[in-house]
Design a protein that fits this description.
Length: 223
């Protein structure tokens, strides 16, 4: 409903800020964010926030994300932070009888050598890509947690798996960004500094599926 109270977590990030824009354009009147700097890894603070606010639906866009370098270097952060954040939010929804939750995963949850196009049933059917394994395992745990709460408690938690995202408010740090914003920045800097070439990582042979972030936001609202 247009007057439902919808909580968007991670509203400052690429996905969250897009969801906020699209909700406003779509005419939703009561969009809630966690404006105070609450650490979503702090279970007590998260639970208190949910208890104080009469929330109807949650779109969880809060996560620690990064490209190949960040995922390879900070594996412990990626698995701990993401599992803790999503555990707190998912369980808080259950405790406050918020049945509608959108949980965002990633296409990296599927096996490294997955058949194409990817189907849902390929989940847990093979070895993951090692560079982002910690992040993928955290997201798989979140999917299975949502599935389990739906089964045991009759919730309506939905898990969406976007591919490589890009758009306004992206991360353009060359050390921590995903490949597409990094590529854009390299091209921008090359043109700005009048260079004739850029250096990209890898062989250039892998194929990636790209998704504009506003299209993902529209999908979240639709589902």
């Amino acid at each position: 409903m247009k007057n439902s109270i919808i909580l968007v977590t991670g509203h400052r990030g690429l996905v969250g800020s897009s969801v906020m824009r699209r909700l406003k354009i779509s005419g939703y009147k009561n969009v809630l964010t966690i404006k105070k700097r609450i650490d979503l890894r702090d279970q007590k603070k998260v639970f208190n926030f949910f208890k104080k606010n009469k929330i109807d639906s949650v779109i969880n866009a809060a996560a620690l994300v990064g490209g190949i370098l960040a995922n390879s270097k900070y594996k412990a952060n990626f698995i701990y932070d993401n599992m803790t954040i999503q555990n707190n939010i998912i369980h808080a929804c259950y405790m406050n009888n918020i049945k509608n939750l959108i949980f965002l995963g990633s296409s990296c949850i599927y096996p490294k050598f997955c058949k194409q196009p990817i189907k849902e049933e390929y989940l847990l059917s093979g070895k993951l890509e090692t560079t982002n394994e910690a992040y993928a395992i955290a997201k798989i745990a979140g999917i299975k947690m949502c599935e389990s709460y739906n089964f045991q408690y009759g919730m309506n938690f939905k898990c969406l798996m976007p591919s490589n995202l890009f758009g306004p408010n992206d991360n353009y740090n060359l050390d921590s960004s995903h490949f597409f914003p990094a590529l854009l920045k390299k091209i921008y800097l090359a043109k700005k500094n009048k260079k004739n070439s850029i250096t990209i990582w890898g062989s250039g042979k892998p194929k990636s599926e790209l998704l504009f972030v506003d299209d993902l936001a529209d999908a979240c609202i639709f589902f």
